[in-house]
Amino acid sequence: MWILSLVHNRRKRRFWVWMAVLMVIGTAGCVCCYRYQKDFRNFSGETLCLLIHNASEARSAAAFFDADMMSAETEQTDVTIPYVFNETYRRYNALQASFGTDLEDYCGKVCVQYRFCLQADDAEEGRTLTLLVYDGRLIGGDISGNAFDGTMRGLVS
Length: 157
Prior knowledge:
By secondary structure, the protein is of the alpha+beta class.
């Protein structure tokens, strides 16, 4: 009969306990670092925190994409992303690809939509910036012209 024993004396027992403790601490540290890095993204040399918990943090993120939005009027609403995308949602989701997200990952989820509307004397000059936030994380948005036939583009383009 063979018995395999890794612990013959106190020194070896202490060694293996410390090794296990170090492995747990190292794993926890790696997970925290990975999650911390996911909350930040670089866009053309500048870093943006993707965590948004209130309107003031949303305003800071909006100013990152368009500095004029610091003075814009803010509107906050809840939006449910549908389970089945129609053609409009498919095109909007294609805009989000430039931001690095896929809205299909959030089907059926309720998101907070922050809209920053910058009015101008000329309708051609006005624009609206929209941010979509799910569970405190910025998942996408767009910048659109306020003109009747205004164009829409992704946050990063």
